[in-house]
Amino acid sequence: DAKTTQPNSMESNEEEPVHLPCNHSTISGTDYIHWYRQLPSQGPEYVIHGLTSNVNNRMASLAIAEDRKSSTLILHRATLRDAAVYYCILPGKIIFGKGTRLHILP
Amino acid sequence: NAGVMQNPRHLVRRRGQEARLRCSPMKGHSHVYWYRQLPEEGLKFMVYLQKENIIDESGMPKERFSAEFPKEGPSILRIQQVVRGDSAAYFCASSPIWTSGSNEQFFGPGTRLTVL
Q1: Which has more pLDDT, B39 or B114?
Q2: pLDDT score of B49 more than 90
Q3: CA nearest A87 in B: which residue?
Q4: Chain A: residue whose CA lies nearest to B105
Q5: What is the pLDDT of residues B57-100, one digit of tens each?
Q6: Phi and psi, residue B72, nearest 5°
Q7: Does residue B101 register a pLDDT over 70?
Q8: Do B42 and A96 make contact, defined as CB atoms within 8 angstroms?
Q9: For residues A18 and A102, is the Cβ–Cβ distance under 8 A?
């Protein structure tokens, strides 16, 4: 299974944009890139996914590099409720790494 | 449409007892996945089931752990003769089809197992 690499933690100020990076250099041509997040004491929740083109939804945007070896989850205006662990994964079994713990500073 | 339901939410067992964790997938979903999350760790895949079939159990410990998803009723994750190292949060997820592409998984709230 292809793997992903994310920073262990990041900080951002409230109401500012957040860019969460993910490397997936072994991605195959048909692998979608999924992002999930896990709020404290809750199960993971789906955020966004994409294949080649950049994607937007009500929660976030996903920017995918042209070679698809990396992607960036963009939270346009972070709030305290966005503090969570963010996982970048390539489906199959949906193998979760440790993700990026995002801290939002008020 | 109710989400994925898991019960109990919290389960306390003494060493050597059995733990049974239940998961009811979302309506219309026939694929169920179980994950385990140790404290301060990421989720680890355990098993993938369809109705009456185990598709992939490569993440399941070889002993004491079993899972089923019967034709009727919830999926069950059973842990026999629990040990303290089994203390963790166990999450269930469901999807309408095999998540190989664009279909996301929907997660339940988890069962937090504590072994005394």
Answers
A1: B114
A2: yes
A3: B42
A4: A46
A5: 989 999 999 999 999 999 999 999 999 999 999 999 998 866 55
A6: -120, 140
A7: no
A8: yes
A9: yes
